[in-house]
Amino acid sequence: MDSEAPLFFWISRFSGPAWKKEEKSGQYYLHLFEETQADLNWENESVRAECIKILKFWAEKGVDGFRLDVVNLLSKTPGLPDDPITGPKGDGRTHYADGPRIHEYLHMMNQKVFKPYGLVTVGEMSSTTPEECILYTREDREELSMVFSFHHMKTDYKDGSKWTNQMFSLEQLKEVQSYFQNKMEAGGGWNALFYSNHDQPRALSRFGNDIFYREESAKLLAITLFGLQGTTYIYQGEELGMKSACFETLEEYNDRESTGAYRQMRKEGVSPEAHSVQKAVRYFYRGKLSPAGAGSSTAVYI
Q1: CB distance 261 to 268 below 8 Å
Q2: Is residue 156 annotated as part of the catalytic site, yes or no?
Q3: Catalytic hit among 83, 91, 124, 156
Q4: Helix locations, 202-299, DSSP H
Q5: Phi and psi, residue 293, nearest 5°
Q6: Chain CA centroid to CA 179, Å
Q7: Per residue in 188-211, pLDDT tens?
């Protein structure tokens, strides 16, 4: 993007504008997430070739597979226009989630790397649908082995917004999981099953009772997850019944998404001492307790 400020208004998933000026060139670059993570232009053939080269490098090293972070956001609508939607979902995702060439790109990666090297692949999906997840994972389409989807992770979002204090709905959690399970089974897709990962608070604290029924809640969540159709993923610490971190001050939270959300709430006029701000950050904080266990006060960002 040339030195003129972008006329459209896409929002970073880590809060604030998704466009940042690069001072040396005077141009703007897009970062849907952290500003050090510039989005690559997959429309550029040289970029695609370099990415294939990187994948082959690791395949030659003997890796068994790849986890592809928010891979369904690679393809953007040409021209990168304004998002016609207003509200939390009007952040630009209309023009970058499941973009016009995403299946072409994934099939290319499959044919050039995944299939020849016999690799297992799991794609992290953002703002997608079960119909798209079926297309990504149906075996005859030769794209991905399985996908992570996040619809069941939004059952405690208030009005579609993540950084709120609303408790999760058990009824909605069951409905969303059943809907996705039935859709994927009927369409020949394959799920990657999870309750916790590096983007989420720990499921034990989120969906269970980690004070009075810690062991029972951990076992309940494990039994539920292993009873679903798909490939189960256990996040580090779940096997120990690990709880979410909870620090005394916001300054102790070492995570760009959490601190970005805090700054955005402050811009919107919320007092830094407000209980709602502190509770939201503590609830959704992505930092995880160290392997030393729930008694450790050390957080690591992964």
Answers
A1: no
A2: no
A3: 124
A4: 203-207, 214-226, 256-267, 275-284
A5: 115, 180
A6: 20
A7: 999 999 999 988 889 999 999 999
